[in-house]
Amino acid sequence: MAIPEPSEGHSDIEAVDRVADLARSRGVRIAVAESLTAGRISALLGRGEDAASWYRGAVVAYVEDVKFDVLGVDRGPVITASCARRMAVGVRRLLGADVAVGITGVGGPGPREDCPPGTVHLAVALPGRTRSTHVRLPGGPAEVVEAATRLALTELVAALESLPADPADPADPATT
């Protein structure tokens, strides 16, 4: 999984602009459940153009009990693909979104749950299916969080691109 570097022209703001365009053209509402990134993805999405029309909000589930009690994650290890999927599905249901991201992992500096620093599990829940990704990112805690945020935005864009355009979208030249 290649994570775009900011120097490659994939700034967080550019990615959020793309998410906003796609969400509006697809007619979908987006939500996020964050652990590792501690609200960073939500803060960026909230800055997107016309966010009130497509961004439902987020749950920052930094501690395990919030994952279990609010998002419906099964009790047990939380640095897993299953946890990321349950977080995405849970926040999608909780906030009434069409598409949702769930992200969990280990920023460092040390391991957690026998997972090395840089371990990231990310899922995107779409209507009828959930996509998941697992990567190990280099760097210290700040670099891991930054790269994980970029990965989440990149995966969200890819997921939104896989959805058909809203047939009623006035911005789509094919419907006018």
From TrEMBL:
Q: What is its EC number?
A: 3.5.1.42
- UniProt key word Transferase: no
Query: For this protein, what is any one GO molecular function term?
Result: nicotinamide-nucleotide amidase activity
Class in the EC hierarchy, top level: hydrolase
Domain annotation CinA C-terminal: ranges = 17-158
* Sorted UniProt keywords: Hydrolase
Please give the InterPro entries that the UniProt record associates with this protein. Answer: CinA-like_C (IPR036653), CinA_C (IPR008136)
Q: What is this protein called?
A: Nicotinamide-nucleotide amidase
Organism equals Nocardioides cavernae
Classification from the root reads: Bacteria, Bacillati, Actinomycetota, Actinomycetes, Propionibacteriales
